[in-house]
Write a structure and sequence with these properties.
Blueprint: E1 2-3, H1 7-19, E2 26-27, H2 30-39, E3 44-48, H3 56-66, E4 71-76, H4 81-89, E5 94-97, H5 102-121, E6 128-130, E7 133-136, E8 141-144, E9 147-149, H6 153-164, E10 169-171, H7 172-180, H8 189-207, E11 216-220, E12 224-228
Parallel strand pairs: 1-2, 1-3, 3-4, 4-5
Antiparallel strand pairs: 6-7, 7-8, 8-9, 10-12, 11-12
Helix pairs in contact: 2-3, 4-8, 6-7, 6-8
The structure holds calcium ion.
Calcium ion is lined by residues 5-6, 48, 50-51.
Length: 230
């Protein structure tokens, strides 16, 4: 689904995606998008943040509730990092800033859809344990000391990637390329926001009854992150 009130950009996206074999629904308002999403499951939503009726961030938050598994790529003319962070925190998996080229949009969308298909279908189903953290790779669930932790798709992929190299540093570039897009360009703010939210959600397990602390995600300045058992 494309959610964009601007005729030129909306048509460019809709026709460009259709020409590449995607089935596309185009909605021009936030309300229209939410109604559409209540009745249809979408693999991916390209969501403009500047909509005429409901703020894109609010649309994103509600979309995330209606369709937890869909990939949401937000589109913003706002270069301001605060807007980007607000959008990511409201549930978007990724963002593109306007103006953009159709080639890069298609590359990004293809990478997202390939990755979610891969994540669902063909990963080895070995479980991973890091201290009190248990990851059920096949079921795509995780728990801390037996307390389930609900993660969004990209948060899960990020945790899984760090857990696969638990105790070792994983570089920002590696994380961006493995979890988001091998042809990543632009800011890696997305990564920091997802790490912050992962830390928060893992920590909440303690409030929900876990007795053992979750593994820590350590920031390695200028390099990346490391997941290590507490
Ligand atoms: Ca707009």
């Amino acid at each position: 689904m494309v959610v964009e009130d601007d005729d030129t950009i909306g048509r460019l996206l809709a026709t460009g995606l259709q020409a590449n074999g995607y089935e596309v629904r185009w909605q021009r308002t936030g309300r229209g998008a939410l109604i559409e999403a209540a009745g249809n499951a979408f693999d991916l939503v390209v969501l403009d943040l500047g909509l005429p009726d409901v703020d894109g961030v609010e649309v994103c938050r509600e979309l995330r509730v209606i369709q937890p598994a869909t990939v949401i790529v937000m589109l913003t003319a706002r270069q301001d990092e605060i807007d980007v962070v607000a959008g990511l925190e409201s549930g978007a998996d990724d963002y593109l800033t306007k103006p953009f080229g159709m080639v890069s949009v298609l590359a990004r969308i293809r990478a997202h859809l390939r990755r979610s298909a891969f994540a669902v279908g063909s990963q080895p189903v070995d479980d991973i344990d890091v201290g009190s953290l248990h990851i059920d790779v096949g079921a795509r669930t995780c728990s801390v000391d037996g307390v389930p932790v609900a993660l969004r798709a990209k948060e899960f992929d990020l945790l899984l990637r760090l857990a696969q190299d638990a105790g070792s540093a994983v570089s920002r570039g590696q994380l961006m390329s493995d979890v988001w897009d091998e042809n990543w360009f632009g800011s890696t703010k997305t990564l920091d926001v997802h790490i912050a939210s992962l830390r928060r959600k893992l920590g909440e397990a303690l409030e929900d009854g876990a007795l053992q602390a979750p593994p820590a995600i350590t920031t390695l300045r200028g390099h990346g992150y490391r997941l290590e058992a507490a």
